[in-house]
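Task card 7
Instruction: Convert sequence to structure tokens.
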Amino acid sequence: MLEDCEQHDDGALLISYKDLQSKVNGSLLDALGESDQEDRREINSPIVSGAITKHNVQHLDPPVSFHLRLLKDVPPSFTVECMYWDTEQKVWSSDGCETKESDRINSTLCVCSHLSSFAVIMATHDFQDHEGLLLISRFGLTVSLICLFLSLLTFLLCRALRSAHTSVLTALCGCLFVGQLLVLVGLRLTDNKVLCGVIAGALQLSFLCAFCWMSLESMLLFLTVRNLRAVNYMTSQRSHFPYVCLLGFGIPVIIVIISAAIKPHAYGTENYCWLKRDLIWSFLGPVCVFITINLILLVLTFGLLRQKLASLNSNVSTLKHTRLLTFKALSQLFILGCTWIFGYFQFGSAALVMSFLFTICNSLQGLYIFVVHCMLNRQVREEYRRMYRRLHAKRSDSEAISGSTVPMTTKSSQVSEVPRIDWEGSKSTTNTA
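Output:
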């Protein structure tokens, strides 16, 4: 700043206000134009004012640079920014100021092209969009939606596959399909606040339903192993599926109704149609509960399977089939459930890595379901072969019929007599060609 003092009577002044930031912090959100407390903002440095004896304190060339001491360490989920107090707009602004570097512990380097009252503002922040993340997300969700659609067709149209297990998988695929479709086409429709809030609530409901149906699938597997019979829960077509639907859809609906009644304005953020931070635990909390229930049930199921395989020989084939289903459910828990854990750690220096892992794993859930429950299922593959043979046979028949159709004029020269039926008499006469 002293470079601007060209004459011997020029001067520069930097004033630091003691404890002023503690008085300003109470009204900081209002000064920043925030209507709610979704984003926590706090002054994390002394407020300082700069002045020089020159009349022009705007568009300084070169700009002034100074270090501001941080009052406390910056948490990983927060960012720091150099800002000044705009006396005309009565707000804190970053226009004309850059945050060059910050060690997040001791100080932050600010470079500004004008003089005013400055401070370092600490605020929570959403992870910024990354072109690679957007590309992976769109491609993965498109592939996942196609695979979920094929899985739904398989479970609904193949009557031989219908059972309690496939009914649960159908509901799970349907919930994931709706949720991922909303993410792909509606996550950024933030112009209409009402529509954005509805999309956020629908996303919360669809994904909570998917996790709830995963828990019900684990419960179904556990009951199958514990009450092993010739015709068990997994293969019986006479299931209590309508009553199970009350749990699979009812529990998430109750959670969404309660959270929407408590904080209806927390549905839809500035950038996404999703839950705000003060309501995010209405989703993450139940997800943690569902994942824990799944893990406990599947561990108990594996323990029961070991006992059954050791004691029963007559049902070995049934037990092996159930063990395979349990293994698929455990891997499904990891792909569809545990991968959401990556979303809990999208902050700090590892935020970008965690975001890529979270996006890759969660955008390919439909592909996993189709491969494991359809392509690797022997009964499903047999149904696919039967469908292919039927389609191939129909195509061959249609080609044979079209190929056998020839004009009758090619045979007219070879026919010597053509019988003619006299519909009025009982005799038939012939015409000589």
